[in-house]
Structure formats: structure tokens, C-alpha cells
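Bumping with the actual sequence this time:
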Amino acid sequence: MPINTILCDIDGSLMRPSSGLYVDEEIAQKIIALEEKGMLVILNSARALSGVLPLSRQLKMDHFGGYVISCNGANIKDAKTNHTLFEYAIKQEDALDIWHTILNHQLIPGILQPDHMLALKMTEGYELDAKNCHIAYNLTKQPEESLKQAVWKCTASGTKADIDRVIFSLKEDLEKRFPVKVVRSTDTFVDIIDINVDKFRSSNQLLRQLYKSWDEVSAIGDGLADLECMKAASYAVAPANAQLAVLKVADQILPSCDENGCLVWLDELLRK
């Protein structure tokens, strides 16, 4: 079955991690050329929605159609109609308990709602998130006063050394007490999402809703969160900077994201 859909991780795959809202223009033009030929584009990211929608517009997905999966699968939106197809939220009372649990592990807690992030204070990880996801941060010691919307994810941030020291105990503590899963997204940033959420489940649900199979999909990814999508896709590619487990399942290893290695993949798709 011919490939007619590309599933794209963003940070570490289409661009260098934490390098802003937009991909290099050469990459954008290649993806637009694929869309002009009928390719469906799905962006599949750990970023907050506000960090993915600007990229979808750069890629003209609001014109051609396409889908945005954000927060590691917590929200799925139609890029053309701006309609939310489905979302998975954490209960507000659980989010508050998770906040205090993160504090007990000496990390800085955060709670993501649709239009802003609550955080105790800014960290390097949160500074990068604010920049890359173009999201407003509300700093507070009393999150319950601002918790008025759906909770798409909770977060924990700190230095790499801080997170290295507590990540396993934090993960065990949270996953034992709450219906969540803990995903380390970067060296300085941890995502806590609903237990039913991950990139593969949300991608699979979207494809089923679109009456598509994985045989029609080519996927690019670099992290463990991308692994199951890579295994399921008809053709999977990974940049050289990807984690070892991802490199092992890739059908093709590209130059690193620092070298815009995804261009090799996009050129192959255009030729085919």
C-alpha cells in the first residue's frame, strides 16, 4: 500500500530541540510540496498545543488539512477546522495532589491548561517551554485558585542533576497513586499525563477515525515516546541523534537534526 501519510515528531526530528516555533524554511517547503501531492501531515509532539499550531500554519496545514497531536497525545486537533477531535484530561483534584507530590521530590511543579501554564516558579526547563510553546506562564503558590480549565498534563522541572536523582522515585510514586504515566521529555522537564495517553494510542485512534492503516504511514521520531509509532509505521526513519532503541527499529537512519537530516527523508518521499 502506498504511503499517503507522514507522522512527524518535532523536537529532535524536524528541528533541533528547543529551537523555536518553526522549522527551517527548506523543510517547510518540502512538506508543503508533499501536501500539494496529496500527502496527509500529522504533527505528533510532546509540546503544548500552542507550541505546535504555529508550525501547522507554517506548513499550511490549515489550508491543505492535517492534524495536530500535542501534549504527548492528550489533545488531538484538526488543523484546518480547529476542531478538537478528542482529549484526555487529568482530574483537577489529582492535579493538585500531583503538584504537592512533585514538591515533596524537590522539583518545581506545573499544571498545563488550554491557554496557560501554572508553575511555582520559572526554571530553565520552563523558560524553554515558554519560548518554544509560546505559552503564558502564571506563577503561583496556590494553584487551586487558578485551576478553572481542563488539565492536559502536569509537569515537573529542575536541573538535569535534580531530575536524574529523583526521576525513578517520582515515577514510582506518581504512577502508584494516580492514573497517570510519567515521561521525561527533556533533561530538565518531566511530563505527567493521563494513563490512557501516549503518542501511539492517540495516533492509532486518529488513524482509525480517518479509516487509515499504519501501512499508509511513514513516521519520523527520535525519542522513546515515538518508539511504538515507529514500530507500527510502514516506513520509519530516525535522525542520527535519536535514542538507541529508536535507531534500532528505524528502517533508515538520517543525518542528525543539527544537519536537517529529515530533508533526506522528505526528498525520498517526493521522488516516490
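The C-alpha cells above came from a reply further down the thread. The mean pLDDT is 94.
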